[in-house]
Amino acid sequence: MKLIIVESPTKARTLTRFLGDKYQIEASMGHLRDLPSKKLGVDLEHNFEPEYVIDKKKQATVTKLKTTAKAAKEIILATDPDREGEAIAWHLEYILKDTAKDFKRIVFHEITENAIATALKNPGKVDLKLVDSQQARRILDRLVGYKLSPLLWRKVRRGLSAGRVQSVAVRLIVEREQLIKAFVPQEYWEIKVELQKDKINFLVQLIKALKNKAESQTTVNDLEASEYQVKSIDQKTLSRHAYPPLITSTLQRLAGNRLGWSAKKTMAMAQHLYENGLITYHRTDSVNLAQEAIEMCRAYINSTYGKEYLPDQPNFYKSRSKNVQGAHEAIRTTKLTVSADELGKSEQRLYQLIWQRFVACQMKPALFKKTTLVIKAQGVKAYELKAEAEKMEFDGWMKVGDGFKQTEVNLPKMAAGDKLQLVKVLPEQKFTQPPPRYTEASLIKELEKKGIGRPSTYAPIISTIQDRYYVEKDEQKLKPTAIGETVTLFLIKHFDTIMDYDFTAKMEDDLDQIALGKLKSTELLKNFYLPFDTKLIEVTEKAERAKIATETTGDKCPDCKEGDIVIRLGRFGKFLSC
After folding, report:
1. pLDDT higher for 575 or 13?
2. Domain total in the chain
3. Pairing relation of β-strands 227-240 and 419-431?
4. Which ranges carry the Topo IA-type catalytic domain (predicted)?
5. Is the pLDDT of residue 490 over 80?
6. What distance in Å separates the CA atoms of residue 120 and residue 112, rounded to the nearest whole number?
7. From CA 281, how far away is CA 253, in angstroms rounded?
8. Which of 126, 142, 174 lies at the terminal end of a domain, its last residue?
9. Which of 311, 338, 360 is the last residue of a domain?
10. Which value, to the nearest 10 degrees, does the dihedral of the CA atoms of residues 100, 101, 102, 104 take?
């Protein structure tokens, strides 16, 4: 009997569907070993050697796997194709080493019959460089969290914690909130003019924005007495290309913007789709597509929409984010025809987004005719006004939807020199707007842009900073709490290196170098920990205690009638207090 071990029962059932009784397939239920929860678990005196322990809740799983492994003639480790998956495989090999069996490692990026068959024909060994990279990340995070949290208890408030990447994410939100609070709106006026030609009314806008009401009123009076004629009219054809195939960050942003989902929910639904063999692996930052997938997609486009929608050559895309790990494929569907009966309602919605993006990315561009109209108004002064209109000439990739909404503006036929009739002048007072608060989607985009985090970490980062009450949602926008702001400012003041965006991105890059075998994990850990520990001692001895600003509700206490009702943070979340 040959034993295949995967992470989850769902994944095990899908493999069983393809492999039948040729193999026995068991699930590890995720990680079996980790650092201990109640102590550091890292030997600082001996090259940061980790101390791994088996989770008590996993003892029954370990016992079952050992028993099954003893009866197997071969053990195949089929965990996910990323750092965490490689680490799980390595831990499994360690736990089952006493069975003295031959271990093989197989990797596939989609759970389909062909992908599994190919992987089984080409087994390898556990990638120790990738494991070393995962282990270095885990130790880094443990050092920061385990060492900084007690300091925050002493200097800010009991029960607080810090994270290497999470704290930097909170910094982004805090700094955005500071910009919003410091923002001073500036008044300006826009003037639109409604004109008529051949009994067709249309709007043009004054190119220059005006500073105040007085300037606006003077301009309005002059425009109402002006004569209007076409100065120029320009037409050109625009091509709008399809969006690139989905990666983890763009999937999370798309589901957030289109479906209103959290990153956590998106990844849970994607996990289910992947484990059931319906999409490729969903933790990826590569926009590459397998040649077979491109051929399948092009054949589908040709048969469904016609050859006029199929480009002569496949469309290829290049990743734009920093620190791209290109070994994976983009997120796509494994086939192009799936019955709705196979999916739950939420899964259907996410699957449809992935399907649309996959098909659209291999279709021809959409074509538009863009008209730019410049109008001259002659009064006491001369003014220029402008209008733009677009008309779709070929829908291209938009045929499949993919959420692109095109609003067409129709203009009457005109030529340079044509006279136009004034209908009315429409002044509107406006004010400049502060930068918006981050949504989950826009925060993920910013983290990716700065090279902070990885596909597997975006959703946990965003969940963690909310679970710790450092950040809360206000109308789906992320807002720092008083405690989140206090902790962030304390860490920036005393641990500016750890809180630096470029430093955090450099750490991600160094972890990639470890995975490639170009950097030793011990070197990275020493370079990080020695100055960090020195700073920790200094801050513990010298830093003053930080004071948390009180959040008020604006209401008086209903009991004493004098005290203000304030928001406090306790063990179980927020509560109101006098």
Report:
1. 13
2. 5
3. antiparallel
4. 127-537
5. yes
6. 12
7. 17
8. 126
9. 360
10. -120
Domain residues for 566?
Answer: 551-578
Q: What is the DSSP string of 197-250?
A: ETTEEEEEEESS-BSSHHHHHHHHHHHHT-EEEEEEEEEEEEEEPPPPPB-HHH
Please check whether residue 90 is in contact with residue 105, taking contact to mean a CB–CB distance below 8 angstroms.
no
Torsional sign, CA 501, 506, 511, 516: positive
What CATH number is given to the structural domain containing 524? Answer: 1.10.460.10
Mean pLDDT value of segment 146-158: 95
Q: Does 508 share its domain with 572? A: no
- Residue 248 DSSP code: H
With beta carbons less than 8 A apart as the criterion, state whether 440 and 169 touch: no
Question: How many angstroms separate the CA atoms of 407 and 411, rounded?
Answer: 13
Residues 528, 460: one domain?
A: yes
- pLDDT of residue 323 exceeding 60, the answer is no
Model pLDDT for residues 257-288, shown as the tens digit of each residue: 999 999 999 999 999 999 999 999 999 999 99
pTM: 0.91
HSE-CB for 145 with a 13 A CA cutoff: 18
Model confidence pLDDT, tens digit, residues 65-92: 999 999 999 999 999 999 999 999 999 9
Q: Which residues does 37 contact at the CB level (< 8 Å), separation at least 6?
A: none
Of 402 and 139, which is predicted with more confidence?
Answer: 139
Higher pLDDT, 316 or 327: 316
Q: Are residues 56 and 169 in the same domain?
A: no
Q: What is the mean pLDDT of residues 376-386?
A: 96
Residue positions annotated with a catalytic role: 281
